[in-house]
């Protein structure tokens, strides 16, 4: 009777059967509706971690469910295989980045296979192989031809430890995101993609993404950072010249008390020619850091030029002009007007130099023109102390000032974006070579298409920092494709975010001779459901959206948005442990003794916080030993249990134990299946049909924890039910219902019960809607107003029937204790109160 599910036999067996049958291979052509389910492809770091397991299990359940509900499914897997860690490994371990990466891919692939994923492995790709990145080079040249790529000398973030340029996003608090080194500024010639050309499209497109989390859409919106403002001129007193400023707050114009220009503003340079003190001040400004954070925190300093400007709304009102260290030359016009009551930097500056501070936006009832204190009011509000603007809202006042400026010709409305063009040059080896040749005479030329792919050289050394491509003895020496004189290859490689900006298209269509076939790709695209970590909410998703729009712009594809549905899953967390000397301990290095946690040899352990699994804190749990102990299905089921999928999930041994027991309860139902029983069980039938309907909805909504709860409920009911034809039917149906989540167990059970073919290839059961109608209600039975019993009664029961049922309740009779009921109050559908 106590038979046990044996995953060690079942898992490899079914995995082999699936593979040999080709059941998860996406059809090249099919009349069925399409479902493209994709999880963000992994970086081959070496081992699969629990975060991957959770991510891929979720996608797998959906993919399997889609197949069972009559879809042609594309569920591929690949490797985001270029990037810094491979080069770091090369430097530390003296291995080749290619070898290291390919070994990792092999190891991780084996681990993923143990999970029993329904993946079309025939479409597997790795971005580090020329048959992928060669096509990427072709796309880069297409973009170049379309005017979406340009080269520009620009000041870049230089990581002096990793010896590489970092994107702004990779600079966190002034430090390199990976090395933690203080970032420096350096001028280099860089390749840029014109993402800003699509800034408005990318912003407006967000509105169409109604299957994306709101928080992700908001993050993208803020990243694009569209602000509407006014660009206007303040005329210099006694001079025909003027100073152009940019403001996002034209509503605060009457609160202006000074104008400030950047230290490298042309006017500052001009004035400094005859003013040594100003020259010295400018020098001082240059010494400070240049990041936004540096400027934010530095003390606000200014130099009074002695010049004055006229206020554009009142030429009799003159304002002083300062050179100030907090004004950036490369933002707006390099000049601003200061409104101290409503901006922190301006207020700090005004307090320091004794300038006026006039309130022009009311703060609640406070309209006092004399602004006090050191905290500005930066919100919107009713405009006060502002002549013709008084009484307007901030928005109305902004529009009114812009309209007036445009009418009178001293300024115009202007839109600014925070988004900058995408610098894609990296001074690294392990990336896609940029397909360009530099000729002394002809300039930067595209590599002729016939010479693609430009393949990375294998013989490189990593013993000194810097770019191995640049110091390779021969690789970069090529003839100019135009004049045939000796020329030089571009030695920069592409940002790895480029690789992940189009892999989902290559999955959908992979011809040998071009990046993708339009018709074939459009069969599948856009991705129906994309699943991944929220850490990619901004950059990866924005770049992939840009790339898709650029392809659409060039007429290569007919869609604007690559991902119809997006889901960002929560992280897998675990307790952290520290030994007495303060070093981190892994879960495998500690054990529980009574209520205490100690090291394996009994030394004391301090229990730390529950945190995201990460190598640095050693709180990682490798899935392999879990597979060894419980098999894939228990691990999968645990990943889908309890926690809503967008929330973090705390991994626990106790949790996996309980899961294993549940898996075996299901197994015993399959094992004890009797097909020939007679008899109908109406209650169980109803529950079964509810489960069928509900589990499907839950999977589709990715609320797997709810689907899990419904399976629990059904299993409980089946276990309790007397043998009947309904019960047998329910057990057989259960195999199909759990198949997306517990695929090996379901196959094994299906076979055992005599099902034909693979359960994974069966149709999802259909439910009878009539059985979902609720025709029973719960009625509270009270005696003298106190709850004594609850009864489940037909919804249609009339007052007399309810009264009779209440008076027959054993608990009510006991509570009455022999007293005669004086009155019975019936509230149909809710309660019966017996008054005695
Ligand atoms: C007047 C004003 C009043 C401003 C007020 C703000 C608040 P965002 O919103 O980030 O786009 N600014 C303009 N050019 C600048 C530059 N080159 N360097 C530093 N700051 C500059 O920032 C726009 C605001 O930043 C502008 O609006 C300007 O100050 C300042 F209550 O103008 B504001
Ligand atoms: Zn040439």
Q: Please, could you describe this protein's structure?
A:
By secondary structure, the protein is of the alpha+beta class. Helices cover 35% and strands 22% of the residues. The chain has 26 helices and 35 strands. The protein has a four-stranded parallel sheet with strand order 2-1-24-25, covered by helices on one side. Strand 10 and strand 11 (242-247) form a beta hairpin. Helix 22 (704-720) runs antiparallel to helix 23 (725-738). The longest helix is centred in the N-terminal third of the chain and has 19 residues, at 50-68. It is globular and about 105 Å long. The model has no long low-confidence stretch (mean pLDDT 93). Bound molecules: ligand ANZ and zinc ion (ZN). Zinc ion binds next to loops.
Short description:
The chain is α+β, with helices and mostly antiparallel strands and 836 residues long. Helix content is 35%, strand content 22%.
Provide the fold topology.
Layout: H1 7-21, E1 34-39, H2 50-68, E2 72-74, E3 78-79, H3 84-93, H4 97-114, E4 125-126, H5 130-145, E5 149-159, E6 164-166, E7 171-172, E8 175-176, E9 184-193, H6 199-205, H7 214-224, E10 227-235, E11 242-247, E12 258-261, H8 266-272, H9 276-287, H10 292-297, E13 302-311, E14 314-324, E15 335-338, H11 344-353, H12 394-408, E16 411-416, E17 422-423, E18 425-426, E19 436-439, E20 443-446, H13 468-471, E21 477-479, E22 486-489, E23 493-494, H14 496-499, H15 503-508, H16 518-524, E24 527-533, H17 539-553, E25 563-569, E26 572-579, E27 584-585, E28 590-593, E29 596-599, E30 605-612, H18 623-630, H19 632-640, E31 649-650, H20 653-671, H21 682-700, H22 704-720, H23 725-738, H24 743-752, E32 776-783, E33 786-794, H25 799-808, H26 810-816, E34 823-827, E35 831-835
Parallel strand pairs: 1-2, 1-24, 3-4, 12-14, 24-25, 26-31, 32-35
Antiparallel strand pairs: 5-6, 5-9, 7-8, 9-17, 10-11, 10-16, 12-15, 13-14, 18-23, 19-20, 19-22, 21-22, 26-27, 26-30, 28-29, 32-33, 34-35
Helix pairs in contact: 1-24, 2-19, 3-4, 8-9, 18-19, 19-20, 20-22, 20-24, 21-22, 21-23, 22-23, 23-24
The structure holds ligand ANZ and zinc ion.
The site of ligand ANZ has 18 residues, from strand 11 and strand 15.
